[in-house]
Amino acid sequence: MKYVIVLGDGMADEPIEALGGKTPLAYAKTPAMDRLSKKGEIGMVHTIPDGMKPGSDTANLSVLGYDPKIYYSGRSPLEALSIGVPMKDTDIAIRCNIVTISEDDVPFEEKTIIDHSSGEISTEDCAVLLDAVRKELENETFKFYVGTSYRHCLIWDKGSVVELTPPHDVLTQVIGQYLPKEEALREMMKKSYDILVNHPINVERKKQGLNPANCCWFWGAGTKPMLSSFEEKTGKKGMMVSAVDLLKGIAVGAGMGVVEVEGANGGLHTNYEGKVDAALKAITEDGYDFVYIHLEAPDEMGHQGSVERKVQAIEYLDSRVIGPVCEKLDALKEDYRMLILPDHPTPIRVRTHTADNVPYLLYDSTNPADHTWNYNEAEAKESGNFVAQGHKIIEHLFEK
Questions:
Q1: Taking burial as the number of CB atoms within 10 A of a residue's CB, which of 155, 292, 295, 385 is the most buried?
Q2: Predicted TM-score (pTM) of this structure
C-alpha cells in the first residue's frame, strides 16, 4: 500500500457572493476530487489546536502527525532547517519577508503595507536585494540567509523569542503599530527600506508595473526545532514535495526525504507536472511508502484577495496534480490511499488565515465506497465525520 497526502494550502474558504454563495472549492471545476469523494470518505478536521495561531507551520505539523502543542518552536526555525542554516541552541531564527510598502512621502511608521510577497518576486532577484541589505546591516549578532522568492531568514545570535506580526495579517494597514518593539529589529526594517527603495531592481520593477520589494519584514521568531523521526513514529518512509522552505524544513527535521523540483516556486504558475513526476518517482521507484505533495498557490491567492485566481489554483490542483497522480497509480495497479485537504482556511474576505475546521477527503483504491457527495466545505460538514485532533488525521490515512 502506498500513501499520498495532497495539501492545498489555504484552500478552504467561506461562501462568496460573487460565486453564487459558494466557496471557491465548491465553485471550482474539480472532477478528479469529486470522483474520489464519491468513492471515498469526506469530513471535517480541526488542524489548529485551540489557543494557537492559525499558521501553515502549526497546521502542517498537525497534518503530518506532530501535535503542535508539543513540537512547535516557531515558524522560521523550520524554514532555517530547509535553507541549511546551522542553528545553535542559543540562536533565534526569524522569517525575513521582503515586502512592498507604500513609497509616499510620510515617516516610515506611517507607510502602508501593500503586498507581503512583492508580487511573488523571483528568488534570483530577491537574492540580489537581500545581498544589498546584508552588506549594510549584517554583523556578528544578525546574519541573513537566502530562502525562496520573498521568504528569507534572519538568525539572531543569543536573541529572544519576541512577539512579531505576520505581514499577511495586516495588509493595507499602516505599519507603525505592527513594527517590532525590539529596537534593533525595528531599526533594521527602517534601514532596509532606505537601502531597497531605489535599488535598480526595484526601479525596473516599478517601470514594469510590478510591486517593488522595498522593505524587510521580520516575523515568526523561534528556537531550534526538535522533531522526532517520521519513519520511527509512523513506520513509513516519507518524501516531501514542496516549493516552500517551511514544509521542506519540517521534512528535514522529521528525517523525511526532500526533493527539489526545478521551476517549483510556490505560486500559481509553479511546475505542477514536475511535482507530480517527483512524487510518483518517490513511491513507485525509490522505495518510499508515503509522499506529501504541498501546493502553496491557493493560500497565496487568498492573501491576494483574488477570487478568480484562487478558483484557478484549486482547478490546477485537481487537473494537474490529483488527476495525474491517480491515473498513474491506477495504471501501475498500485494499491494506494490518498488524503486531500487544506491545512487551514485563507478566506478571501479577510486575506489571512483562520482557525476554522477544514474539509478532508480520504480515498482507498482497494475499498471504493458509493456516495453522491462532492468534496467541499458544506458537504464535508454535512457528512458528520469529524476529526477533533488534527495530528491524528494521518493515523486515519495509515489505518491499513
A1: 295
A2: 0.84
